[in-house]
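I am writing to request your help with a piece of structural work I have in hand. What I wish to show you is a protein chain and, alongside it, a tokenised description of its three-dimensional fold. Could you please explain, in whatever detail you think fit, how the structure tokens follow from the sequence? You will find the record immediately after this paragraph.
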Amino acid sequence: MLSKKCKYAIHALVYLARRYQQGPVHIHEIADREKIPKKFLEAILLELRKAKILQSKKGKGGGYYLLKKPEEVNLMEIIRLMDGAIAMLPCVSLNYYESCEECKDEEACSIRIAFVGVRDETLRILAGSTLDKMVATNPQLE
């Protein structure tokens, strides 16, 4: 399940993707339009900035804007950044692997084998779900 932080990050990024190359967007606008608490949004946007997904501009006319093109930002990247592992079991995680305590033979484990397939399909879908595609499905500003 996605954390609230991750859901807010996705909403903010989709909003910024809708405004791509239209100049910086003030944090108050994003918070108001996407119904995200401003303090929470500030921390999320800073994390996205550190990850070089966003950039910010200070002063009058300042705000946040996408540093990467919308087609270069996918849900897999955002979820990993905000929530960590995507896999449902630690023994199938690509980036956060841990062996399972109860497993006797990881290579022959039928549970692990099934969840490798779930992980692979999930990653395929998330990698293909880019901000530009998400905007295209509902291009209207909400």
